[in-house]
């Protein structure tokens, strides 16, 4: 039976992100896509050869890793359209100038 003062051993990696050494697991798929696209463009279409494809892929991978960090979802989600039609920015409702005047006035009157 365990006493209250006795320590309990737990798994050290509990709650940590999966990865291969210093490479986070969620970077592997984007890197594979970068390598594949680079190969088809620079070797398949332009015929530059594998060494140049390797250098270009390496540069693109390092750039992607620098921009996204360990969590690429935080970066990529910034470009997704927010849900709904009434967006708030700094406490003000965004009203598109492309909708009719009647609808714009309706939104303005509802806010007051």
Structural description of this entry:
Helix 1 runs antiparallel to helix 2 (50-68). This protein folds into two domains: 23-80, no CATH class; 82-112, no CATH class. It is mainly α and 112 residues long. The longest helix is centred in the middle third of the chain and has 19 residues, at 50-68. The model has no long low-confidence stretch (mean pLDDT 82). It is built from four helices and four strands. The chain starts with 18 loop residues before the first strand and ends with a helix. The chain is flat. The strands form two sheets. It has a two-stranded antiparallel ribbon with strand order 1-2. Strands 3-4 form a two-stranded antiparallel sheet.
Concise synopsis of the structure shown:
The chain has 112 residues and is mainly α. Helices cover 47% and strands 7% of the residues. It contains four helices and four strands.
Proportion of β residues? 5-15%
Quick one: overall form?
Answer: flat
Arithmetic mean of pLDDT: 82
Q: Order of strands across the biggest sheet?
A: 1-2
Order of helices and strands: EEHHHEEH
Measured between the Cα atoms of the first and last residue, the distance is 66 Å
Radius of gyration: 25 Å
The biggest beta sheet reads: 2 strands, antiparallel
Keywords:
single chain; 112 residues; mainly alpha; two-stranded antiparallel ribbon; flat
Layout of helices and strands, plus pairs?
Elements: E1 19-20, E2 23-24, H1 28-45, H2 50-68, H3 72-76, E3 88-89, E4 92-93, H4 101-111
Antiparallel strand pairs: 1-2, 3-4
């Amino acid at each position: 039976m365990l006493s209250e003062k006795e320590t309990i051993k737990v798994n050290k990696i509990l709650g940590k992100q999966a990865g291969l050494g210093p490479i986070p697991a969620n970077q592997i798929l984007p890197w594979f896509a970068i390598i594949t696209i680079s190969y088809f463009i620079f070797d398949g279409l332009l015929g530059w050869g594998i060494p140049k494809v390797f250098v270009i892929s390496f540069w693109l991978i390092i750039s992607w890793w620098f921009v996204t960090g360990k969590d690429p979802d935080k970066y990529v989600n910034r470009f997704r359209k927010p849900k709904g039609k009434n967006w708030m920015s700094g406490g003000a409702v965004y009203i598109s100038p492309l909708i009719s005047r009647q609808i714009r006035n309706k939104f303005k009157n509802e806010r007051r």
